[in-house]
Amino acid sequence: MSEMLTIPDLTLLFMVVVSSLAVALIYMLHELEPKLARLRLRADRVLRDRTK
Question: Residue 52: what pLDDT?
C-alpha cells in the first residue's frame, strides 16, 4: 500500500523545487550575461555606423 505524503513532506518538496528553479534561473542569467553584453555592444556599433 502506498503511503501519502504528509504536509511537512510536501512543504519540503515544494521548497526544494522552488529553490532548484531559482538556482537554475540565476545560473542561466549568469551564463547569458556576457553574451548579451557582447550583442548589445555589437548592436550599438551597427546603429552608430548607420547614423554616420
Answer: 59
Query: Using H for helix, E for strand and C for coil, what is the string for 7-47?
Result: HHHHHHHHHHHHHHHHHHHHHHHHHHHHHHHHHHHHHHHHH
Amino acid at residue number 24: A
C-alpha cell at 9: 513532506
* Residue 13 contacts residue 5 (beta carbons within 8 Å): yes
CA distance 32 to 28: 6
CA terminus-to-terminus distance, the chain: 76
Task: State if pTM tops 0.90.
Answer: no
Cα 44 from Cα 9, distance rounded (Å): 51
